[in-house]
Write a structure and sequence with these properties.
Radius of gyration: 43 Å
Shape: elongated
Largest sheet: 4 strands, mixed
Strand content: 5-15%
Number of helices: 11
Strand order of the largest sheet: 2-1-3-4
Helix content: 40-55%
C-alpha cells in the first residue's frame, strides 16, 4: 500500500520535533554555562571520541633545499683560455672569447700582467673596450691600464711600407685657417701614434669661401683613403664660438666622432663610447679607440683595386 506524501511529511516532522524536545527539555539556553560545565562537556566528548592511532607521515620531513650546481657555477667568473703565450699575437687575439664577459677579461688581463706577459695583457685590456659590454667603472679601469701599458710596448706596425695612407680633411673658413694650420704636425703625429703606426696620415686643409652678408660657414672634418674612388668617414661640422672649447679640442672631438660613426656602420666591434665630461678627445684616440678599432677603420676605407682581365687571343682558323 502506498502511503500518501502528506502523512510522510507529518510523521517525519513529528519525529524530528519529539527528538528535539526530549533532548532540549532539560536545557537552559538563557544562562551561559560556567567553566566547570564546559570542561566536563569537553572531557565527555573526548571519552566518546578517542584520538586516532599514530601512523607514519605520508610526506617526508622537510629538508634544506640545496642550491642547484648550475646556479652556483654562475657566481664563479669563468676563466678565458690563455692560449699560446710564446707566439706573437695578432690584434684580434682573445677576440674569439668575447662571450666570457667583462669580468673574465679583467681577471685575464691582471693575471697576464702578473706573469709578465704585457703584450698579451694589453690585448686583454683592449678587448674590454672593443669586444665586451663594459660599464663605466670597468671601462675606466681598462683605459687607465691601456694608457700605462702602451708606453711600455713597441709600436705595432714597424714596417712603414705596410702603413695605410689616410687623409684627414679639414675645410675651414679663412678666419680659422691659421689655427687649424698650426695643428697640422700635432694632428698627424697623434693619429699615427694612436693607431700604433698602422696609419700614415696626411692632413689636407682647404679654405671655404665666405659669402658677403651670410654667417661664417662651419668647419667640416672627415677622413678618407687616398684612392681615386676614395671611401670616406661621416663628415662632422663645427660651428666655432668664442665661449666654447678651444679649436684644437673641437677638432679632436670631430675626428673621434667621425671615426666612431664609421665603425658603427662597418664593424662588428663595440663602437667607441661617448666621451664623458672628464675625458679629453685627444687622449681618447688612444684609450677609447683600440688598435683593433684602427685596423677595422683602415679595412673599411680600403678600396679593392680592380684588376684588368687577362688578354685573350682568339685565332680563327678557317678550313680550306
Amino acid at each position: 500500500m502506498r502511503i500518501p506524501w502528506y502523512i510522510v511529511v507529518l510523521a517525519a516532522t513529528a519525529v524530528f520535533g519529539c527528538v528535539l524536545w526530549i533532548g532540549a527539555r532539560s536545557k537552559d539556553f538563557t544562562i551561559r554555562p560556567d567553566d566547570e560545565a564546559v570542561a566536563q562537556s569537553v572531557n565527555h566528548w573526548k571519552i566518546k571520541h578517542p584520538p586516532l592511532p599514530a601512523r607514519e607521515r605520508a610526506l617526508p620531513s622537510p629538508q634544506r633545499i640545496e642550491q642547484p650546481k648550475a646556479i652556483l657555477e654562475q657566481t664563479i667568473t669563468p676563466k678565458v683560455p690563455l692560449g699560446q703565450l710564446e707566439t706573437q699575437p695578432n690584434l684580434q687575439h682573445f677576440r674569439q672569447h668575447h662571450d666570457f664577459g667583462t669580468e673574465s677579461f679583467i681577471q685575464l688581463a691582471i693575471d697576464l700582467e702578473s706573469m709578465g706577459k704585457l703584450s698579451h695583457a694589453l690585448l686583454a685590456w683592449e678587448r674590454i673596450i672593443d669586444s665586451t659590454d663594459a660599464n663605466a667603472g670597468q671601462a675606466l679601469q681598462a683605459r687607465k691600464a691601456i694608457s700605462a701599458l702602451r708606453l711600455t710596448q713597441p709600436i705595432w706596425n714597424a714596417d712603414s711600407e705596410d702603413n695605410f695612407s689616410l687623409i684627414l680633411h679639414i675645410h675651414t673658413p679663412v678666419e680659422h685657417k691659421a689655427q687649424a694650420s698650426a695643428l697640422l704636425g700635432q694632428l698627424s703625429d697623434d693619429i699615427r701614434e694612436a693607431s700604433s703606426y698602422q696609419v700614415a696620415p696626411q692632413v689636407l686643409i682647404n679654405t671655404t669661401a665666405q659669402r658677403d652678408g651670410y654667417p661664417s660657414p662651419p668647419i667640416r672634418v672627415w677622413l678618407s683613403s687616398t684612392d681615386k674612388q676614395a671611401k670616406e668617414t661621416p663628415q662632422l661640422t663645427l660651428h666655432l664660438k668664442e665661449d666654447e672649447a678651444p679649436v684644437d679640442e673641437q677638432l679632436y672631438m670631430a675626428i673621434y666622432r667621425s671615426i666612431s660613426g664609421q665603425l658603427q656602420q662597418s664593424s662588428e666591434l663595440m663602437p667607441p663610447a661617448t666621451l664623458s665630461a672628464t675625458e679629453t678627445p685627444r687622449e681618447s684616440l688612444t684609450t677609447n679607440l683600440t688598435r683593433l678599432h684602427w685596423q677595422e677603420l683602415c679595412q673599411s676605407l680600403h678600396v679593392e683595386q680592380e684588376q684588368a682581365p687577362p688578354a685573350v687571343i682568339i685565332i680563327d682558323e678557317s678550313s680550306q
